[in-house]
TrEMBL record:
Enzyme class at the top of the EC tree: transferase
Reactions mediated catalytically: a 5'-end (5'-triphosphoguanosine)-ribonucleoside in mRNA + S-adenosyl-L-methionine = a 5'-end (N(7)-methyl 5'-triphosphoguanosine)-ribonucleoside in mRNA + S-adenosyl-L-homocysteine
Organism: Rehmannia glutinosa
The enzyme's E.C. designation: 2.1.1.56
Record field: transmembrane: none
Domain MRNA cap 0 methyltransferase, first and last residues per copy: 62-323
Keyword presence, Nucleus: yes
Name of this protein: mRNA (guanine-N(7))-methyltransferase
Key words of the record: Methyltransferase, mRNA capping, mRNA processing, Nucleus, RNA-binding, S-adenosyl-L-methionine, Transferase
Protein biosynthesis keyword on record: no
């Protein structure tokens, strides 16, 4: 396999990415001076680092177990639709590598996963990318898991030897890039620079349309149900009670910005629509049965509670394609 990499290097030459990538030095400088942004990124990193691995029993006992299974089904469907045998995959905000098995099923050829959380609450420099493991031995493809901030670091420098990728994925995390325009641009510039022309970017994130609609219907700045709540802050400084700050991404703005970086929309679907549409296909019905989000179709009739189903409605799935230059 041709793939190699440079260890932890933040130096080196930075060639202009392909296609319509627009380097934005002003935005970058602005970002680097923005302490709030760094604090939020650190807070997100600490939040996810502090999460411990659950046992199977703990996981099954979760009040949102069916929602988690549904989310796994959505990610699996996206992967099965767009990943091909031998593909090189870049997984932004990959978490603890929980999706590796899904990629393995798609028989991919190479995998790089990056996440800001490294499983430790110890302070770490989120500006630096470092490889935390070089191979996922259980899988049939070479894999790198890297700790770093993929919405700030110039990944085309760090991953110069690994690129181009056929598929880029960012699951349930793209909204973390939306804290400043510079970070949102960096995220999309990274994707654009690393995907080959015609390469695919798949993702899932909160559906701003639904969230804003719910906010309008709510009495105050807060709404939710038994398994989630969302509170909107008027002041970003006043974050003390918030475990993990999140941002909403108006999809039309995301789409327009993505186009600037040569990424054209293939589709965007709210999760409810996504489920409705792909549950018409027998292979994905079977996948849903295996994952168990809607029970196993036999004795196990357990399924998402109405409250879990409402949470699913808060998310969307998108697919973008890097334009051929
Ligand atoms: C909801 S989890 C999703 C994890 C994984 N993609 C999945 O679908 O299971 C969000 C992930 O985004 C990661 N994350 C948030 N901001 C990030 C950043 N700036 N750079 C890299 N990872 C980030 C978090 O550490 C966390 O693992």
């Amino acid at each position: 396999m041709k793939r190699g990499y440079q260890e932890s290097s933040s130096s080196g030459s930075f060639g202009p990415p392909h296609s319509k990538f627009k380097y934005n030095p002003e935005g970058d400088a602005q970002f680097l001076e923005d302490d709030n942004t760094k604090i939020f990124a650190k807070k997100v990193a600490d939040h996810y680092s502090a999460r411990t691995n659950q046992t199977l029993e703990e996981r099954e006992a979760s009040p949102i177990i069916h929602l988690k299974k549904l989310n796994n089904w959505i990610k699996s469907v996206l992967i099965q639709l767009y990943a091909k045998r031998g593909d090189a995959v870049l997984d932004l905000a990959c978490g603890k590598g929980g999706d590796l098995i899904k990629w393995d099923k798609a028989r991919i050829g190479y995998y790089v996963g990056i996440d800001i959380a490294d499983g430790s609450t110890a302070a770490h420099d989120i500006m630096v990318m470092r490889t935390i493991t070089n191979a996922a031995k259980k899988f049939s493809f070479p894999a790198r898991l890297i700790c770093g901030d993929c919405f700030e670091v110039r990944l085309d420098k760090v991953l110069a030897e690994d690129a181009p990728f056929d598929v880029c994925s960012c699951q349930f995390a793209m909204h973390y890039s939306w804290s400043t325009e510079a970070r949102a641009r960096r995220a999309l510039a990274n994707v654009s620079a690393l995907l080959r022309p015609g390469g695919i970017f798949i993702g899932t994130m909160p559906d701003a349309n639904v969230i804003v609609k719910k906010l309008r219907e709510a009495e105050g700045l807060q709404f939710g149900n038994s398994v989630y709540w969302i509170r909107f802050d008027e002041e970003f400084e006043n974050k003390d009670a918030v475990d993990c700050p999140e941002w909403i991404v108006p999809f039309h703005v995301f789409k327009t910005l993505a186009e600037e970086y040569g990424l054209e929309l293939v589709f965007v679907k709210n999760s409810h629509v996504f489920v409705d549409e792909y549950m018409k296909k027998p292979e994905f019905v079977e996948l849903m049965r295996r994952l168990g989000a809607l029970g196993d179709g036999k004795e196990d009739q357990s399924t998402l509670s109405p409250d879990e189903w409402e949470v699913a409605y808060l998310y969307l799935a998108f697919v973008l394609r890097k334009v051929e230059s």
